[in-house]
Write a structure and sequence with these properties.
Elements (H helix, E strand, L loop, with lengths): L1 E9 L2 H34 L10 H12 L12 H19 L16 E4 L3 E3 L3 E4 L3 E5 L7 E3 L2 E6 L2 E9 L11 E6 L3 E5 L4 E3 L3 H17 L6 H35 L2 E5 L3 H4 L6 H7 L1 H15 L2 E5 L24 E3 L6 E3 H22 L2
Parallel strand pairs: 9-12, 12-13
Antiparallel strand pairs: 1-5, 1-8, 2-7, 3-6, 4-5, 7-8, 9-10, 10-11, 14-15
Helix pairs in contact: 1-3, 2-3, 4-5, 5-8
């Protein structure tokens, strides 16, 4: 299977300037291509009798070379993959919108906001450096795996740091026998409650950092835009946001890796995270959990380590059902202990839900294994 590998670069000042130029050309090509597509869509909307075919990624790339590169010589200072991949990405973004309109129409990219570009052509990757076309050898902070030549990789910027990411081929383990089974109930009070009674605490990195974030945001708002002090305050705020995100990401990686290696079958509920975020009183706490990232990591790590991930239907009443007799009864958010009115079974609310997810996940797994 293919896994993404991402590490931080250690460029010098000259290389930082060239990296920023490459990201600028990619951003310009993306916005230029998006404007061409918007114009074509508006033409087809206003003149339905004289519709034109939307340009493909190849068409956009050819037009960019003919119309833009001849007039803007600074586009030749960077690798051609910057605009080649940018026009491809903007066309893919529009295709994704046509397939899933709920994701929203593509937006124009802004300077110093998720700056990135993709390099084209075969490139040599050393043990502690990466050969970037038109830039040269850029050192890395950590040792890289033995890759030899790679066809393409992406350079991205977060705060004032540059990162390189590429895909590496990793052998996946065969699926294990479903012996060790666990149900996982995610929540706000505790990040995860397992069916065996183990509780994974919620570290709440954003809540712990809110005071410092407010202080840095207030300091930035008091600076005049364009000044050196404004840029310094902006970098400080960006670094701290990245620090908070890294704390959450590190905790999530350690937890999901432990689950995928320890248990053969992991039963997880299909949560409607987007709908949960509409609750104004709980939105910040839910966003601080990173529930979607938890599931995303489990999906590829279970495949990597040979364990099964079973997603239980979101409409399954795991919290309302008794794990002992199956009786269903209504609960409020304030009810933290499940007391069955039928059999008298008493259990922690989250642990009861985790046990129900385990039973339902095993049933779903058996059906999937028995089906032809």
């Amino acid at each position: 299977m293919l896994l993404g590998f991402k590490t931080e670069l250690n460029p010098n000042n000259t290389q930082r300037t060239l990296l920023a130029k490459s990201a600028g050309v990619a951003r310009y090509a993306y916005n230029w291509g998006l404007q061409i597509l918007i114009t074509s869509l508006e033409h087809n909307k206003t003149q339905p009798e004289n519709k034109i075919k939307l340009p493909t990624a190849i068409d956009l790339n050819k037009r960019f070379k003919a119309e833009v590169k001849s007039e803007k010589p600074w586009t030749y200072e960077v690798n051609k993959g910057c605009h080649n991949y940018a026009t491809r990405h903007v066309r893919d973004a529009l295709n994704n919108f046509f397939k899933q309109p709920e994701k929203g129409f593509p937006n124009f990219k802004k300077k110093e906001f998720h700056d990135s570009f993709t390099c084209d052509g075969s490139t040599i990757v050393g043990s502690t450096w990466v050969q970037i076309p038109n830039i040269g050898k850029v050192r890395t902070f950590e040792k890289l795996p033995a890759l030899g030549k790679v066809k393409s990789f992406t350079i991205s910027k977060k705060a004032d740091k540059w990162f390189v990411s590429f895909k590496i081929e990793t052998p996946s383990q065969p699926m294990r026998e479903p012996i060790e089974v666990v149900g996982v109930d995610l929540g706000i009070k505790s990040l995860a409650t397992l069916s065996n009674g183990q509780v994974i605490p919620n570290i709440k990195p954003l809540k712990a950092a809110l005071g410092r974030l407010r202080q840095l945001s207030r300091s930035l708002s008091r600076k005049q835009k364009g000044t050196a002090s404004y840029q310094e305050a902006k970098i400080k705020l960006g670094r701290f946001h990245s620090h908070v995100a890294n704390i959450r990401k590190d905790y999530m990686h350690k937890l999901t890796t432990w689950l995928a290696k320890t248990f053969d079958v992991i039963c997880l509920e299909d949560l409607n995270v987007k709908g949960m975020l509409k609750n104004p009183k709980l939105a910040r706490a839910i966003a601080d959990l990173g529930l979607f990232e938890f599931r995303r990591q489990l999906e590829y790590k279970c495949q990597l380590y040979g364990s099964h991930l079973v997603i239980v239907d979101r409409w399954y009443p795991s919290s309302k059902s008794c794990s002992n007799c199956g009786h269903k009864q209504d609960l409020t958010l304030a009810d933290r202990v499940y007391k069955c009115e039928n059999c008298g079974h008493v259990q922690d609310r989250d642990e009861n839900a985790a046990v129900n997810l385990k039973h339902e996940g095993l049933r779903v797994l058996r059906l999937s294994l028995c089906s032809p």
